[in-house]
Structures are given as structure tokens and as C-alpha cells.
Design brief:
Length: 84
């Protein structure tokens, strides 16, 4: 019974990680400075960087999913240590 719970949590962890990667790929680059200054890239220093709409929603979901992924991994590790 306890190993079924661990197995279910591992499947949930895999699904959350997959969704987190997909959300990361859907988001655009937020940081345009750095080495772009050396290569002459378009910096847009004075552009508005406030997130709105879908970009903000993706950012919030990514943050929440990352926190849940971290907590789920810790819970799985604790369960494995206490059961086995």
C-alpha cells in the first residue's frame, strides 16, 4: 500500500516536471542584457518589462509548479526513508 503511494507521487512528479519544462519553453527570454552588450545585440534598455496577460499567467504557474515539484520531491524522499 505504501509503495503504491510512492509510485503515484513519482508519476505526479514526472508529470509536473514535464509541464514545468513545457512552460519554460513557452516563455520568452526575460533577460536581454549580459553578453548581448559585447556582441551588439538589441538591448532595449528602456523598454517596459512588466509582465501582462498570458506571459504573467505562465510565470505564476511556473513558479507555483516549481515550488510544488520541490515539495513533492522532498515528501517522496521522506516517505522512502521512513518506509524502507
Amino acid at each position: 500500500m505504501n509503495q503504491n503511494i510512492i509510485f503515484a507521487l513519482e508519476i505526479i512528479l514526472f508529470i509536473m516536471a514535464t509541464i514545468l519544462v513545457l512552460l519554460g519553453l513557452l516563455q520568452g527570454k526575460k533577460n536581454h542584457n549580459g553578453l548581448g552588450a559585447l556582441s551588439g545585440g538589441n538591448q532595449e534598455l528602456f523598454a517596459s518589462t512588466k509582465e501582462r496577460g498570458w506571459i504573467r499567467l505562465f510565470s505564476i504557474i511556473t513558479l507555483i509548479l516549481g515550488i510544488l515539484l520541490f515539495i513533492t520531491a522532498i515528501v517522496i524522499r521522506i516517505l522512502i526513508n521512513t518506509i524502507l
